[in-house]
């Protein structure tokens, strides 16, 4: 898969995994992200290895992240989306979503899915809607999996 990058003023968004700061991503996900508190760094590393990742950078510092789990044919799951608090308000989450939704390897998918507790407004700007028939969806969820 070819790396894609866009410069947006003083910010860079890139799919190049060699640029990712795994420790910074782990720090955010394990301490600030309500969906993955206490996640071990090894789990973050494995997740990144098996995903299409988007890093957001300012002055070569990792300030945001998102990842896609996909078969690149029919379905994609969007997860672990964040922009560091001190960099919010610059439209970076919108630019990140634009790049994700326009990524050449993610076109023509039948279904996209995500879970969010607080960013519905952002995703609705890109055509996302509530699940039409939640009675068809099931899950197996262990919210305490990272608690020791």
Attribute tags:
alpha+beta, single chain, 6-stranded mixed sheet, 24% helix, 148 residues, GNAT_dom, 4 helices, Aminopeptidase
Question: What does this 3D model show about the protein?
Answer:
The protein has 148 residues and is α+β, with helices and mostly antiparallel strands. It has a single domain (5-136), classed as Gcn5-related N-acetyltransferase (GNAT) (Aminopeptidase, 3-Layer(aba) Sandwich). 24% of the residues lie in helices and 26% in strands. It contains 4 helices and 6 strands, in the order E-E-H-H-E-E-E-H-E-H. The chain has helices at residues 22-31, 41-49, 92-102, 120-124; strands at 5-8, 11-14, 52-58, 61-70, 75-83, 111-114. The chain has a 6-stranded mixed sheet, with helices on both faces. Strand 3 and strand 4 (61-70) form a beta hairpin.
């Amino acid at each position: 898969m070819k790396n894609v990058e866009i410069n947006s003023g003083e910010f860079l968004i890139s799919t190049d995994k060699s640029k990712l700061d795994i420790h910074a991503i782990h720090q955010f996900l394990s301490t600030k992200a309500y969906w993955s508190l206490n996640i071990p760094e090894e789990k973050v590393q494995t997740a990144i290895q098996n995903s299409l990742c988007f890093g957001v950078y300012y002055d070569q510092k990792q300030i945001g992240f998102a990842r896609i789990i996909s078969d690149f044919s029919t379905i994609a799951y969007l997860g672990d989306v964040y922009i560091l608090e001190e960099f919010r308000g610059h439209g970076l989450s919108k630019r990140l979503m634009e790049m994700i939704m326009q990524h050449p390897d993610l076109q023509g998918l039948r279904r996209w899915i995500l879970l969010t507790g607080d960013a519905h407004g952002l995703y609705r700007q890109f055509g996302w809607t509530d699940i039409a028939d939640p009675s068809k969806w099931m899950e197996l969820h262990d919210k305490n999996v990272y608690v020791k």
